[in-house]
Each structure stands twice: as structure tokens, then as C-alpha cells.
Design brief:
26 helices; binds zinc ion; binds L-captopril; two-stranded parallel sheet; mainly alpha
């Protein structure tokens, strides 16, 4: 493949330097109708006519809701918060009305599509509306407030002119690059302190969600969340256990290896009591992705360069230097700051064009011009925004956007591919009636872009000039597998534990007074991760993860991390690929693209097992392709871990400082 460098793309993107505001990810809330109060049903309306009307009303109200949400996410103020809360309140009141109206059709003749649409109306909402209007208003206000608190989260240290204030992005930079134990602990603790004030609001928020769920006939909000998978909530919970059991041995091997390397680096402090990994040393605020520990966990030095981040940073620097060279006269500090922003934006756009190129190489369409005008690519200088990446369908008619605070690093680069997966789903199912405009299930939505990420092999990365010449050797293979495992395998237990916590909060087995203890118990049980210092109930560590204050269900990401390997294998087959799974890329393959797009275009119009069967030949989620993909690494890890006692013990750690980890310094 001929190298097609990122810098070529820069020439094109540099012309488009503006971006405007945008909307909130409706893959979490779709179908999210918006706008006016529910219209009374016309006399003699049939079930099929009812659903046709609801679809029209959703379409009509949708842009106003998404605009309000986009504004509140990209310009956090009291005003935008209020407007978003009100829009959401109207939207949920309307949904309540439709659900009420749908009851009269129970047992009536209707088409299968109508029956499915009525079922989806009830099960696809993550914020179930209480009947009582006052409680509904309180719920939507709290939702906007919590998301705003997360977006504005700032950790300040010191006082007076010495005071240093940092937001999530800067604190994440510390975990990404700084290997000093205390600096990492400070960044980790600092970010988690920003969630403390959410605790009271979240407690009330969870109560109100449950009121809404009960008003809809569910035992609690967790049961509602588990009911959107074309099976019973109990069957769904059992499915997640089954899938986790398939991959747990692989995770345990990776965990064991990581602990050995961390201990080599930090001594006793590289592991916490019971053999768990210290939360602040994993290169990531939530220990969900260990890619940033490459410096410590790379199996073989000099077996092929995979340092994408260094290349992306080079590109950004070159952009800046170019602007500097063009500048006439002595630039002021403000000129320099402007040039830096322009360089950051140009780099972010070039990264996004590179991601788009993968999709178009498979025959999918280009993103519309409005995408490039309205997307938020980088963190604005002049206002508070929610930086957590997401993708938006503003109007079900082509106004698609992403909202990110892109930095030139590998994680953000792959996140762009992830977000465009959502966008391509939107564009493919926009032809369907609004109620079907969502993923086959929410795990499908999350898996689209990540399927492409699996196809970003070292050879692909070399072809786009982001890594140097690749070796074809066993060592290079293990390096490449490790790079993928640090992102994908490390994630698996995290993908489960967040909703294990929320399911417990919603069903009452986790009480507000035990929120933090239960959080760390689950981190210990699933991830084998523990805090290095006591985390008592004065903290609210769950609130430090976007999806908790943002009320986005999380099991979808666990499912996605299984499904994406099934999709990847199916697309490799469609591309006619023969060879070991891990080496397959379908970049440029139109047959794979057509197969992918056909799945996207189905949306939620049929039960997901059918959609999965059309794609993969099987109607079951299955982790066998994950294990097939990582087979060489798993063998290698077993050898590395020989003689070690792997695994960890889950003695409660949240309220008592782990001895070795906190008492030693040096
Ligand atoms: O939230 C996301 C995406 C938006 S849907 C950036 N992800 C999860 C996370 O960041 O926690 C992608 C992977 C997991
Ligand atoms: Zn996503």
C-alpha cells in the first residue's frame, strides 16, 4: 500500500477553520422525541396509525431537543442547562403520553412492526419519566446539572498566585506521561475530588429514576435498562455473566503480567494489598484502558515502532512551526496562542479525515459538508464544555456531528474512528421510521467504529505514515497483540462493573451510605484494581466517570468489546481474507463495506439476533473470536507468568489504606 500521510490531508482541512455548536448522543436515548406535549389521539385511530403519528411527532420535535442538548454540552452555563432540562422535560412528558396511549392497543390487531415499535418506545429510554410533573421536572434538572458538573470539573491546588487549576484533560495527561508515583496520585485524587459534590444530587437522581421506572411498570431502573435486548432482564444478566466467563482467564493473564511489570517499576508500591493493581498507576483515570503503560508493558523493545502518539505530536508541531514561519513581524503572546489553536484544530481535522478515509475506502459515503462546519473538534478556549467524546444526529436528516476535545495521541485517534462508527450508523438508518433509528441493540452502536479500529493493523498504520517500517517477526506480532490487548482486554471487566454498581444502586442492594465501598468492592472483584489510599464515604468515585453523571448505561461497551470481534471476523470473511484473524484488515474492501452498511441500515427494525445472524451467521453473542484473535498473546502471557501466583484477593480495601502502598515512599 502506498503511504498516504496525514499531512496531505492537512492541506485540505486547513481551509475549514470554523466550528459551530452541536447535540447530545442520541444513541443512548433514541428514540428521543422532543418538542410539544403529546397530541390527543384522533377518534378511531388504529395501532398502526398511532405508531405512524408517533414517528411523525418524534421527527418534528427532535431537532429542538438535540439543539438544546448540543448547546448545553458545548457551552455550559446556567442558561443552557435550564434550556436543556426544559427540552428534556417536554420530551419525556411526550414520551409518557405515548406510552399511556399505547396501552389501549394491547391485544388489538397490529403489524409486527407496530408491535415492535410499541415495545421499543418503552424499553429504549434510559431516563424513565415519573408521572408526577414536579418529579419529572426535578429529574431533568438534576440530569442537566450533573452532566454540567462533570463537564466543568476542575481540580485546584494551592492558593493565591501559586494556585494551579486543572481539568480532566490535563489530569489525564499526567497519568498518560508522568511516571512519578506521587504526581499520578495527586492527579488521580484531584480528579476524583471533583465528583464529591455530586453525591447528594446523584442519590436523589437515582431515586427519581426509580420512580419513573416503577411508573412504567418496572421493578427499578436497572430492570428497565436490562429489558432492551429482545430477552428477559434475567436472561440478559445471565448472558453478560456467560460472556465474562469466556474472557476472564485472558484478562487474568494480562493482569498478572501488568502487576509484574508495575512491581518492577515501583517496587512494593506497584501492587496493592491482595495483589491488586493501584488505581492511579494504570495510565488511565478509570483503569479501563492500559495503552498508556506501553513504556512498561511493551513485550519487546526494538521489534517495530508503534508510537503513533509521537507521530501525531510531530504533525501538530509542524503545523505550529509552519504558521510561525509564515507570520510577519514579532508575534505577540496572543498571536502565538492563536497559532497554537489553529495547529491543534488542523491536526484534529486531519486525524478525522484519516478516519473518514477508512470508511470511504470501504465504499461508505463521505461525511456531509455540514459535519465539518458544525463539529466540535477541539476544546474551546473561551467556555466550559463536556469534553467526553460523543456523536450526534441532530435532525435525522444529515446534520451529523461529533463532539470531542481531540489531542494528538493514539487514544483520541482511535476514539475518532469509534465516533464515526456512530455517525455512519446514523446516516445508514436515517431512512427508517424514527423509532427504528437506533442500534440493533446499544452494544451494536458502540461496536461499529471499534470494528474498524481492530482493522487498524500495524501495516495499515504504516501505510498512512503513522508508524515506521514494520517487522514481520514473532516479537513484532506479540508487540502488536499487546498494543490491542491493553485497550481491548483491559477494558472488559470495567465494561461490566459500572452497571453492576448501578444495577445495585437501583435495586437497593447498594445503599447511598455504601456507594463508595460498593464501587471499590466491584472494582476489586472484576478488575482487580484498588485505590492506594482510603476512599471512604466522603468520596463519590462513581461520579468521576462520565457515564454516571451523564446517565449513559454502560453494559453496552462490554457487549461491544465482544461483538466487535465477531463483526471483525465477519468482515474479514466478507473480504475473502484467509489467514490468522489478528492480521486481517479490510481497508479498501468494498464487499466488507457493503456487508457492514447493510447491517447498519437495519437499525432496530428487527430483533438483534436476526441482524447478528445476517452479519455473522450466528444469532448469539460469543467471545470465541476474541480468544481466537488473542491466542498468540495468551500463550505468550502464560509463559511470562509461569511461576507467578496470578489472580488477586478481594478483601475490602476502600475504607482502609492498603498498607505497603501508602506507607512507603521513595
Ligand atoms: O464513552 C465512550 C465513547 C462515546 S460513546 C467515547 N466510550 C467508553 C468510555 O469512554 O468510557 C468508548 C469506549 C468506552
Ligand atoms: Zn460510543
Amino acid at each position: 500500500m502506498k503511504p498516504r500521510h496525514l499531512l496531505l490531508a492537512l492541506a485540505v482541512s486547513a481551509a475549514v477553520l470554523t466550528f459551530a455548536g452541536c447535540k447530545k448522543a442520541p444513541e443512548s436515548a433514541a428514540p428521543t422525541p422532543g418538542g410539544v406535549a403529546t397530541t390527543p389521539p384522533p377518534e378511531g385511530e388504529t395501532a398502526d396509525q398511532f405508531i405512524a403519528r408517533v414517528n411523525n411527532e418524534i421527527r418534528a420535535g427532535y431537532p429542538e431537543l438535540t439543539s438544546a442538548q448540543w448547546l448545553s454540552s458545548t457551552y455550559i452555563t446556567d442558561d443552557s442547562e435550564l434550556v436543556a432540562a426544559k427540552a428534556n422535560e417536554r420530551n419525556l412528558a411526550q414520551l409518557r403520553g405515548w406510552i399511556e396511549q399505547s396501552k389501549k392497543f394491547e391485544g388489538q390487531p397490529m403489524s409486527p412492526d407496530t408491535a415492535r415499535a410499541i415495545m421499543l418506545l418503552k424499553t429504549q429510554v434510559s431516563m424513565p419519566p415519573p408521572k408526577d410533573p414536579k418529579q419529572l421536572a426535578e429529574l431533568t434538572k438534576l440530569a442537566s446539572k450533573l452532566e454540567g458538573m462533570y463537564g466543568k470539573g476542575t481540580y485546584c491546588k494551592g492558593a493565591g498566585p501559586q494556585q494551579q487549576c486543572r481539568q480532566l484533560g490535563e489530569l489525564e495527561d499526567v497519568l498518560r506521561t508522568n511516571r512519578d508515583y506521587d504526581a499520578q496520585l495527586d492527579a488521580w485524587q484531584g480528579w476524583h475530588s471533583t465528583a464529591q459534590p455530586m453525591r447528594k444530587d446523584y442519590t436523589r437522581f437515582a431515586e427519581l429514576l426509580n420512580v419513573g421506572a416503577r411508573d412504567m411498570g418496572y421493578a427499578d431502573t436497572g430492570e428497565l435498562w436490562r429489558s432492551g435486548y429482545d430477552m428477559t432482564p434475567a436472561q440478559f444478566a445471565a448472558e453478560t455473566d456467560r460472556l465474562w466467563a469466556q474472557v476472564k482467564p485472558l484478562y487474568e493473564q494480562l493482569h498478572c503480567y501488568a502487576r509484574t511489570q508495575l512491581t518492577a517499576k515501583y517496587g512494593d508500591r506497584g501492587a496493592v494489598a491482595g495483589g491488586m493493581l493501584p488505581a492511579h498507576l494504570m495510565g488511565n483515570m478509570w483503569q479501563q484502558d492500559w495503552s498508556n503503560l506501553w513504556d512498561m508493558l511493551q513485550p519487546y523493545a526494538n521489534a517495530g515502532d508503534l508510537d503513533v502518539t509521537a507521530k501525531l505530536q510531530d504533525i501538530q508541531r509542524q503545523q505550529y512551526n509552519l504558521a510561525l514561519a509564515k507570520h510577519t513581524g514579532n508575534p505577540t503572546a496572543s498571536d502565538l496562542a492563536d497559532m497554537q489553536v489553529a495547529a491543534n484544530l488542523a491536526t484534529a481535522k486531519a486525524m478525522t479525515e484519516r478516519a473518514q478515509d477508512f470508511y470511504t475506502s470501504m465504499g461508505l459515503p463521505k461525511l456531509p459538508a455540514s459535519y465539518w462546519e458544525k463539529t466540535q473538534f477541539i476544546k474551546p478556549r473561551d467556555r466550559e464544555v463536556v469534553c467526553h467524546a460523543n456523536a450526534w444526529d441532530m435532525n435525522m436528516a444529515g446534520d451529523v456531528r461529533t463532539k470531542m476535545c481531540i489531542k494528538p495521541n493514539e487514544e483520541d485517534f482511535t476514539t475518532i474512528y469509534h465516533e464515526l462508527g456512530h455517525v455512519y450508523y446514523y446516516m445508514a438508518y436515517n431512512k427508517l421510521p424514527p423509532i427504528f433509528q437506533t442500534g440493533a441493540h446499544d452494544g451494536f452502536h458502540e461496536a461499529i467504529g471499534d470494528t474498524i479500529v481492530l482493522a487498524m493493523t500495524p501495516d495499515y498504520m504504516q501505510s498512512i505514515g503513522l508508524v515506521g517500517e514494520q517487522q514481520q517477526s514473532d516479537q513484532a506480532l506479540i508487540n502488536a497483540q499487546m498494543r490491542m490487548a491493553l485497550a481491548k482486554v483491559a477494558f472488559l471487566p470495567f465494561g461490566l462493573m459500572i452497571d453492576r454498581w448501578r444495577w445495585g444502586v437501583f435495586d437497593g442492594t447498594i445503599k447511598p451510605e455504601n456507594y463508595n465501598q460498593a464501587w471499590w468492592d466491584l472494582k476489586a472483584k472484576y478488575q482487580g484494581v484498588a485505590p492506594a489510599t482510603a476512599r471512604g464515604e466522603e468520596f463519590f468515585d462513581a461520579g468521576a466517570k462520565y457515564h454516571v453523571p451523564g446517565n449513559t448505561p454502560y453494559t453496552r461497551y462490554f457487549l461491544s468489546h465482544i461483538l466487535q470481534f465477531q463483526f471483525y471476523k465477519a468482515l474479514c470473511d466478507a473480504a475473502g481474507y484467509k489467514g490468522p484473524l489478528y492480521a486481517c484488515s479490510f481497508y479498501g474492501n468494498k464487499a466488507a463495506g457493503a456487508k457492514f452498511e447493510a447491517m447498519l441500515a437495519r437499525g432496530a427494525s428487527q430483533p438483534w439476533p436476526q441482524t447478528l445472524k445476517e452479519m455473522t451467521g450466528s444469532d448469539k453473542m460469543d467471545a470465541t473470536p476474541v480468544l481466537e484473535y488473542f491466542a498468540p498473546l495468551q500463550d505468550w502471557l502464560k509463559k511470562q507468568n509461569e511461576g507467578q501466583t496470578c489472580g488477586w484477593s478481594t478483601t475490602p480495601v476502600a475504607s482502609a489504606p492498603a498498607s505497603a502502598a501508602t506507607t512507603k515512599r521513595g
